[in-house]
From TrEMBL:
This is Glyoxalase/bleomycin resistance protein/dioxygenase. It holds the Pfam family Glyoxalase. GO terms for molecular function: dioxygenase activity. Residues 5-125 form the VOC domain. Keywords: Dioxygenase, Oxidoreductase. InterPro entries: Glyas_Bleomycin-R_OHBP_Dase, Glyas_Fos-R_dOase_dom, VOC_core.
Amino acid sequence: MLTDSPAFSGFAVSDVETARRFYTDVLGLRVEQNTEMGGLLTLHLGGDTNVLVYPRPNHEPASYTVLNFPVADVGAAVRELTGRGVRFERYPGMPQDEDGVMRGNGPDIAWFTDPAGNIFSVIARD
């Protein structure tokens, strides 16, 4: 029954308009806003992947990564996003370099948050 369903993921934000501006202006994503459905956002990602972003007034961000962006070069992605104003997270006990990239402990990865505090990553593509 669900085997061929075009499933998609979603997460909440506290302010849809702030999130939309961040996703489009800073991250450069293709974003569609459905005003007829309360301003829901659809992030159109590579590989024909869509992610639903919905408003939640009492939003509390998850303590885990909600969206991963596989990239060819994590360091280059970090430098580009830092230049656009993105601040990368640093976690105690994680072997991260000066740019916030964790290397040599699985795939290279660096984490950042959206304006609602949701955790995203850029992660080395296989």
